Amino acid sequence: MDKAERILLVFCRLLKHEWLNKTNLALEFNTTERTIERDMQSIRAVLSEARSPAVLLWDRQKGSYILNHYQHRPLQSMEALTILKILLGSRALRLDEMEGLVQALCGLLSPRDEMEFSRLLEEELDGYREPSHHQAIIKTQWDLQQCIRDHRKICLHYSRGDDMRTAHIVIPLSVVVSDGYFYLIATVEGTIHKEPAFFRLDRIRSFDVLPGNGCSPEDNDFSLRRLRSTTPFMFGGNPVRLTLRCQHRAAEALFDKIPAHTVLSWEVETVLVEVTVSIPGFFRWLLMQGDAIVIIGPDRFRQAFIQTLQKIQNAYTDSKEDCPT
Fold first, then answer.
1. Which residues make Cβ contacts (< 8 Å) with residue 185, sequence separation at least 6?
2. Do 273 and 309 fall into the same domain?
3. Who has greater pLDDT, 307 or 225?
4. Which of 215, 264, 297, 310 could connect to 272 by a Cys-Cys bridge, CB 3.0–4.6 Å?
């Protein structure tokens, strides 16, 4: 094997993020460690010439090389401020947890940027209002993430919105954040529903890890990307296909909320759109859109939404009798 072939083979293995021990490489290619060092210098030169973000690193303790695909650099203050505003805007964490995250964010800045960022920090945090559930989230979501990684089945002790306590045997699939809440997505044993269920993390009282392994997300044919496209409202239910007529002023809100949509036609004042959604969550969101988005079909779902509107009207009519004159 000549030098070019050897270097190409080593580089291919580095691209696979393998740790390559210098001594073992010398033995494998029947050459000297000094030759391996020169090969690595050649690879570094190519990366530099190509202006690649990858960096070939040497670990003295391991006596090995590793290709780091990203160059580490201090976080810039404008980037940190953007992250801060996203975190605070979510209102998904208790105040003490939010403060801890922000302090960790400060530690990623250069000393000069940290001073500038600290001046902005106090004002930004001053207006923060934690969620009304006042529950710690960070440790719970991390523990659940370990169960997902290890494909563990758990017994979930859960408190519903009406304070009813329930217990479920579930296989955790993912933890996501939506509309200010963390949700566990999981398949539930002993139910006829094929689609995953959603559990708010702040309502999880505790969970027990059960012996043995559950199915992996791959075994469940689980796709977070597909689920987000059809269930962006964190409500379970079988996905259905709807045709909507949307006024131009509401089109952006619809497209952003349901990225996996299909535009059927653009009209003078409206756009005809096809979406695949789960009905319970979609109906709740649709109520906020007023008359800007209308269900065209199928008719049974159009009629179901009309019934929802009638129930709301009846609730207001009934409550009017109780109002003092």
1. 172, 173, 174, 175, 176, 196, 197, 198, 224, 227
2. yes
3. 307
4. 264
Read out DSSP for 71-111?
---PBPHHHHHHHHHHHHHHT-S-HHHHHHHHHHHHTTB-H
Which CATH number goes with the domain that contains 63?
Answer: 1.10.10.10
Phi-psi region of 256 (alpha: psi -120 to 50; beta: other; left: phi over 0): alpha
* Residue with tokens 């043995």, as numbered in its chain: 212
CB 293 within 8 A of CB 272: no
Instruction: Using a cut of 0.90, tell me whether the model's pTM lies above it.
Output: no
Cβ of 135: how many Cβ atoms within 10 Å? Answer: 18
Other CB atoms within 10 Å distance of the CB of residue 43: 18
- Written as one string, the DSSP assignment of 156-187 is EEEE-TT--EEEEEEEEEEEEEETTEEEEEEE
Tens digit of pLDDT for each residue in 184-234? 988 888 777 777 888 999 999 999 999 877 665 555 555 555 665 555 566
Q: Are 279 and 236 in contact (CB under 8 A)?
A: no
Range of the domain at 13: 3-68
Last residue of a domain, one of 42, 68, 94: 68
